[in-house]
Amino acid sequence: MRAAEIGLLLPEIYRTNLDEGGPLAALLEIMSALHGSLEAAIADPPTLIDPRRAPDRLVSTLAGWVGLARYLDRPDDQSADRPFPGDLRELAALGAELGRRRGSAATLVRFLETATGVPGFAVEEDARQPFHFRVTLPGAAAHRRDLVLSIIHGEKPAFATFDLVAQGEAPNKTEEED
Predict the structure, then answer these.
(1) Global pTM?
(2) What distance in Å separates the CA atoms of residue 54 and residue 89, rounded to the nearest whole number?
(3) Would you tell me how many other CB atoms lie within 10 Å of the CB of residue 102?
(4) What are the sequence ranges of the domains in the chain?
(5) Which of 58, 85, 140, 141 has its CA 20 to 30 A from that of 41?
């Protein structure tokens, strides 16, 4: 709304005092500016709830809505300002789908690759050891090992155990993570 339109909504006694440059006119200009940003925001509601189109300041809120809040505030992560070096927008957009398919190897790989921005994760099950799997950590994601461990612990089935192995490392030199 423009200041003139807001002025028309005022009682007549106030409208008679709408002098150009007066305090009431200045207040109406401020109100107009505040309404302008709100009107722009509600003009396209999907923009507010689509992580791929939302303003930057809303993306972490949207990520929290789809269950990613536990990964956003990590006091032990001092390596970057952003909790995910990958695409948080894409991760938030995939959050509901990842939640529905949670517990599968393909979902864990997709989550890790999107969160870190590094392709090449692999999950292998060991037929000789039930409910145990091995995650291969690509070399480019080695510096994000703490984040990777946090995601694996948060997304794996509760009854499962795993090994995290750096790419190129011999399988018998695994580090048990549980």
Answers:
(1) 0.69
(2) 9
(3) 15
(4) 3-43, 46-177
(5) 85
